[in-house]
Design brief:
binds manganese (II) ion; Indigoidine synthase fold; alpha/beta; about 300 residues; binds pseudouridine-5'-monophosphate; single chain; 11-stranded mixed β-sheet
């Protein structure tokens, strides 16, 4: 095992005995949602996985140690400290570790730690992507490069329109990352079930998905996979309301000159404020839904091994 990594006891036991485990990220806790909903969601997500017979491993860096699996107190700390925790992507990891600092892991860095620990399936809400206006700003999330190289399947709710969805799909195609629709031929758009863009492959259940994941890794085809799982019908946002909020948040981002790693947290927080919390409710529900799919997939994968 990697000497920089601490694997929580229950996670270690499950991995050693071939039982299903899923990874969860922590930037969604500290930078993706407000307190206390962030902590409530993170704890509930772990409970959902456990009830399905899956061990959850929430990932973060605490005092310089990579962690696969956190205690409820550690999750509470990350949620309470919020945006004062360092948002940690691939490039940040050596400095957070060497400086014995605490970092919340993005999709990219959670994939890195999950792969080190031997966890194949990861559930979150949304991934980073190619931002609107990227032709000028070059703002392309490091999550996409990680998906190109690191062997973890990421269950998310598709790509939201703070991103350029079309460019994000082009980038993923170039990088050889499969975009899989879970029970859908159309890529979901996070808050809504439809984006107008197709997926590469559709799967209709965890066994079918697990078989593709197993084939990929057994052939040594390195890199991740995006499993796009539509938000449940009842939890969707009205398209006009969400589009309006996103457009306004993007205008404000531009006016304020916010750039780099601050962009996504700013946009998520503004959209939640502008929709009076409705988008936060949808966000929480879609995360629960993704955890269920990731858990069933981890179980199917464990049975195939
Ligand atoms: N999208 C969401 N919620 C989130 C994020 C994205 O709906 O919490 C977080 C994830 O941790 C993701 C990160 O990995 O933002 C991407 O940030 P950036 O765009 O700076 O790469
Ligand atoms: Mn970015």
């Amino acid at each position: 095992m990697n000497p920089y990594l601490d694997v929580k006891d229950d996670v270690r036991e499950a991995l050693e005995s071939g039982k299903p485990v899923i990874a969860l990220e922590s930037t969604i806790i500290s930078h993706g949602m407000p307190y206390p909903q962030n902590v409530e969601t993170a704890l509930k997500v772990e409970e959902i996985a456990r009830k399905l017979g899956v061990v959850p491993a929430t990932v973060a860096i605490l005092n310089g140690r990579l962690k696969a699996g956190l205690s409820p107190e550690e999750i509470d700390y990350l949620g309470k400290t919020g945006r004062n925790v360092i948002k940690t992507s691939r490039r940040d990891i050596p400095f957070i570790v060497a400086g014995k600092k605490t970092g919340a892991t993005t999709v990219a860095s959670t994939m890195i730690v999950a792969e080190m620990a031997g966890i194949r399936v990861f559930a979150t809400g949304g991934i980073g992507g190619v931002h609107r206006g990227a032709a000028d700003t070059f703002d392309i999330s490091a999550d996409l490069q990680e998906l190109a190289h690191t062997d973890v399947a990421v269950v998310c709710a598709g790509a939201k329109s703070i991103l350029d969805i079309g460019l994000t799909l082009e980038y993923l195609e170039t990088m050889g990352v499969p975009v899989v629709g879970y029970g859908t031929d159309e890529l979901p758009a996070f808050y809504t079930r439809k984006s107008g863009f197709g997926v590469d492959y559709r799967v209709d259940g965890p066994e079918e998905l697990a078989a593709a994941i197993k084939a990929k890794y057994e052939m040594g085809l390195h890199g991740g996979m995006i499993v796009a799982n539509p938000i449940p019908e009842a939890d969707q946002m009205p398209k006009e309301a969400i589009d309006r909020a996103i457009d306004q948040a993007l205008r404000e981002l531009d006016e304020k000159g916010i750039k780099g790693k601050e962009s996504t947290p700013f946009l998520l927080a503004r959209v939640a404020e502008l929709t009076g919390g409705d988008s936060l409710d949808s966000n929480i529900k879609l995360v629960f839904n993704n955890v269920r799919v990731a858990s069933e997939t981890a179980k199917a994968l464990a049975l195939l091994k």
